[in-house]
Design goal:
The complex is a heterotrimer of chains A (about 170), B (about 450) and C (about 300). Chain A is mainly α and about 170 residues long. Chain A has one domain. Helices cover about 75% and strands about 0% of the residues of chain A. In chain B, helix 4 runs antiparallel to helix 14. By secondary structure, chain C is of the alpha/beta class. Chain C has 12 helices and 12 strands. The longest helix of chain C is centred in the C-terminal third of the chain and has 35 residues. In chain C, about 55% of the residues are buried. The chains are: A mainly alpha (about 170), B mainly alpha (about 450), C alpha/beta (about 300). At the A-B interface, helix 1, helix 2, helix 3 and helix 4 of A face helix 1, helix 2, helix 3, helix 4 and helix 13 of B. Bound molecules: sodium ion (2 copies). The site of one sodium ion (NA) has 6 residues of chain B, from helix 16.
Chain lengths: ~170, ~450, ~300
């Protein structure tokens, strides 16, 4: 089980790296587009779609890393005021709800990806980017997000991590 | 059940779900999917991914991570410290000079960053410890930075104005200009309060006997200049007809990173270029958080619209037939309450498309309303339970308790409320500049 | 109990937009038919974003939509033929085209994808520029232009224009800030986005329009199959009513465009048969060529469309 948790964390960290690099790539492409369009007066074909889908990709792929770093903002009013045991139960409920959403999104996303793959869907610009590439970050990123949630829940069960990252004595 | 009743049920369930401490993005997501399955059947799962994807797959949204990156680059450098130091060398004789310098630095930094938490972090990291060390009370020091940081979404560029522009089909460039004067007005109100608080508290400051010579005042300026140039450059690119907001954001982000590398990395050697990695990582984290909420809000809005809740609420408000200022007061209270519990982008995505038609029908200007909306969201950023700026302050000064910060921030919240009143009395504060620069609106 | 059908489109509701009117007519007719059916209209993209509507209909999550067919050309590249420069000359030509093998082929693709057509509708459009009037291809050189869709982009680029892609809602600001010199879009958008405040010259559709777009009322096959005979008949009859309304209105829309622009002091011109022919020559070398080469059956579709007199 240690192996599972460690592997998932490594994967999430890898996701963070990929997402940050994708963001950097998007910035460079936007700048390249500005130079092409306004200084060299050339038409730009693929840059708009590339940056748009890069940012979407970075968001979806980056989400497991952000979960690992507790970066997805939440309402922690109730957890802070509850005693440890109730806090633990609440943490299970919260993780369960989040996991349910992520599983539904992965299911729906995988279906969308498959449709795009089988149907040979593309974007409707001249570039005609195959949509399965644009959609791939949904099953991949959110799939890993599910894994990260499973790992988090396992850590909660085994007491390796405190619910909501709050120590037992943490009370306002 | 009538759509309004369904809406009520959805509202209650959403509050219960979010109260469990589930991340807001996933909480909104599971509520949406739950109600879709109940009312539209399992088949509705077929469009969940499509709706979520389309919610974030918009070129104008690209500017969000870019404007966040601009801020993060500068925040990683000692530029924030330079900024308020430069201001302080000029303002040191004024009572509360340091706090005023910090507020000034917040508002200048806000012109570089689209995000309030980033603004808060950039100035607060250096400013809060310095102020506390010089004997300012904890509450005033943290409250001022928490509030000053909120200017990040009012003074252009602004992440929330971008989202408002997309969801209401208004011009992002025009929204940006509309926020400028109100942003300066709030800065002045904040400073006025600080001045009064410092004078009333009779704070003595360690540095009052250490005067600065004119030379010292001048030599600090060059370090601030490049950033002022970038601000001017981005404004020129945006309004001089060079590029769209997303493009200006991308160029601005690259310039900020390069500038930080050159000035602080190569020239001053006080900064390691390896920190580019931290900059990217930090901005990626904040953007992912915002964009995931945007995607989930798209799903939530779809659910409300599909169940005809949105339309029924709009009809219900329109049928109230109250005086337009009573209506505006009600909307303000409503936004304020939303802002307690939800981050600005979520509130905008869910309510702006409903509110804007009602507000314009009542004869209010859509760009003026965007400013009112934004100031309400600013207040929400420093109120619990969800206040993004409060998290940042907690990270910088973990030993200052939440009630202390809130007590310190309360006068600034009242200043924002006063700002809203002033904007209602003198709408020109928001509408004059866009009209002057871009001509009377569409 | 009544079955409720969801109808969605991207245009303003209740403000007289012809496409909104079409959907409203269907809703009214269905209510009057009293067949246990009700149509709930979601205007202004308040339910789905414009391009999401196609997939939602295929999945049976959206029942009815007023849908510019080209929006689904990423899924079915043949649909680009319904926003192809110079294939439709004027409104009467569009009516003849509806009965041709060209439209039969297009509708077969629509049906095979799980969508059916309730009403046909073609909308015209034109050009507007902040610089000089756009007539023949040589008038386009060097202008930074927003085109409606890739086929137009290819043709305009072939004439020496520099292309900037953006949604029609951005044209106004882009022209105001000088990012854009010229734009090509539908008559309706030219009016509703108040582009006349920015431009010097308008090229109205006239008898030799280059810009025509197929914007039918579509229905999900999944939803259709759930209905009984009487309900299906009522829907088809309502669709016919909406189509007749559009046939009557279409020319009026173009006239309104001309009136509004003239009233605002914009110069209004029309392309001659020679201008249009010169554009078609460029299209043959650019957009038609790429369509024929890249789209299965593209060759045949272009031929069939050009064969309609
Ligand atoms: Na800002
Ligand atoms: Na709040």
């Amino acid at each position: 089980m240690d192996l599972f948790v460690t592997t998932v964390r490594r994967l999430s960290q890898l996701c963070g790296i990929v997402a940050a690099l994708t963001l950097a790539a998007a910035v460079l492409v936007v700048c390249q587009m500005v130079v092409l369009r306004y200084f060299l007066n050339e038409s730009t074909v693929w840059q708009t779609e590339f940056t748009t889908y890069s940012i979407v990709g970075a968001t979806l792929i980056g989400s497991p890393y952000v979960l690992l770093r507790r970066g997805h903002v939440n309402v922690d009013l109730l957890p802070i005021y509850l005693p440890h045991r109730a806090r633990l139960i609440l943490a299970f409920v919260a993780s369960g709800l989040a996991l349910a959403f992520c599983v539904a999104l992965v299911y729906s996303g995988a279906e969308l990806w498959l449709d795009a793959w089988q149907g040979g869907w593309t974007t409707d610009s001249i570039w005609r980017l195959p949509l399965w590439i644009a959609y791939a970050p949904i099953p991949i990123g959110i799939g890993l997000l599910c894994l990260q949630y499973v790992a988090d829940i396992l850590c909660l069960i085994t007491g390796r991590e405190m619910p909501f990252g709050l120590e037992q004595g943490d009370q306002p | 059940m009538s759509p309004l009743e369904i809406g009520g049920v959805i509202g209650v369930v959403t509050i219960l779900v979010l109260a469990t401490g589930v991340p807001i993005a996933f909480g909104l997501g599971i509520v949406s999917i739950g109600f879709l399955i109940i009312f539209d059947g399992w088949g509705s799962l077929g469009i969940v991914a499509d709706t979520f994807f389309a919610g974030i797959g918009e070129f104008a949204l690209v500017s969000i991570p870019m404007f966040v990156l601009m801020g993060a680059a500068v925040a990683s450098s000692p530029a924030g410290k330079d900024l308020y130091e430069a201001l302080e060398r000029w303002l040191y004789k004024v009572p509360g000079g340091l706090i005023i310098s910090n507020l000034g630095a917040c508002s200048i930094f806000a012109a570089l960053s689209g995000s309030s938490p980033a603004t808060c972090a950039a100035i607060g990291k250096m400013g809060i410890p310095e102020m506390r060390q010089r004997g300012y009370p904890d509450g005033l020091a943290t409250g001022a930075i928490a509030a000053g940081g909120t200017l990040g979404i009012l003074i252009p560029p602004s992440v929330t104005m971008i989202v408002y522009g997309i969801s209401t089909e208004t011009s992002i460039g025009r929204l940006f200009i509309a926020g400028l004067l109100p942003g300066l007005m709030l800065t002045c109100l904040f400073m006025a309060w600080s001045l009064y608080a410092a004078w009333r508290g009779g704070y003595r400051f360690a540095l009052t006997d250490v005067g600065y010579s004119l030379r010292q005042k001048l030599e600090v300026l060059p370090r601030v200049l490049p950033f002022l140039l970038i601000i001017a450059g981005v404004l020129y690119v945006l309004y001089g007809g060079i590029a769209t907001p997303s493009e200006a954001a991308g160029v601005g982000a690259l310039f900020c990173v390069l500038l930080v590398v050159v000035i602080y990395g190569l020239f001053l050697r006080s900064w390691s270029p390896l920190r580019i990695w931290d900059i990217l990582g930090d901005s990626m984290r904040e953007s992912v958080m915002i964009l995931m909420i945007i995607g989930a809000s798209a799903l939530f809005s779809y659910t409300l619209s599909s169940l005809f809740v949105t339309q029924s609420i709009a009809e219900w408000i329109a049928d109230l037939d109250v005086n337009r200022w009573v209506l505006m007061a009600m909307i303000n209270v409503f936004l304020l309450v939303c802002g307690f519990f939800l981050p600005p982008v979520a509130v905008i995505l869910m309510t702006a498309p409903i509110l804007l038609p009602i507000v314009t029908l009542a004869g209010f200007d859509p760009y003026w309303f965007a400013v009112i909306f934004t100031i309400n969201m600013e207040i929400g950023l420093i109120t619990p339970p969800v206040g993004l700026n409060l998290y940042v302050i907690n990270g910088i000064a973990p030993d200052v308790s939440l009630p202390t910060i809130l007590k310190g921030a309360l006068p600034f919240m009242l200043a924002m409320a006063l700002g809203i009143v002033l904007l209602c009395v003198f709408p020109e504060i928001a509408t004059w500049l866009p009209d002057a620069i871009m001509g009377p609106g569409i | 109990a009544n079955v409720t059908l969801k109808a969605s489109h991207q245009w303003p509701g209740g403000k007289g937009d012809a496409r909104d009117e079409m959907v409203q007519i269907i809703a009214k007719e269905i209510a009057a038919a009293d067949v246990g059916l009700e149509v709930q209209v979601y205007p202004g993209a308040s339910l789905f974003k414009p391009k999401e509507q196609w997939n939602a209909m295929v999945k049976g999550q959206l029942d009815i939509s007023a849908f510019p067919l080209d929006y689904a050309s990423g899924r079915h590249p043949q649909f680009s033929a319904t926003l192809m420069p110079g294939l439709v000359k004027n409104h009467d030509h569009a009516l003849r085209l509806n009965k041709s093998p060209f439209m039969a082929d297009i509708k077969k693709i629509i049906n095979d994808a799980g969508v059916i057509v309730l009403s046909d509708a073609w909308l015209a459009g034109g050009f507007a520029s902040t610089k000089n009037c756009i007539l023949g291809p040589d008038t386009m050189k060097g202008q930074v232009t927003r085109a409606a869709g890739p086929a137009f982009e290819q043709m305009l680029a072939g004439a020496g224009a520099s292309i900037a892609s953006m949604p029609s809602s951005e044209i106004y600001t882009a022209m105001q800030t000088g990012v854009l010199d010229a734009a090509n879009t539908s008559s309706g958008s030219f009016v509703s986005y108040r582009i006349y405040e920015q431009v010097k010259c308008l090229t109205e559709p006239g008898d030799h329009a280059l810009w025509f777009m197929y914007e039918p009322i579509l229905m999900s096959k999944r939803s259709w199959d759930k209905l009984d005979d009487a309900q299906q008949k009522a829907l088809m009859a309502a669709g016919k009513k909406a189509e007749e309304y559009m046939t009557e209105q279409a020319k009026g829309l173009d006239q309104k465009l001309v009136d509004v622009y003239k009233k605002n002091g914009v110069e209004v011109v029309k392309m001659s048969a020679e201008d249009a022919a010169a554009w078609r020559e460029i299209a043959k070398m650019t957009s038609y060529k790429s369509f024929s080469e890249n789209v299965p059956g593209g060759d045949k579709l272009i031929e069939e469309a050009l064969a309609v007199e």
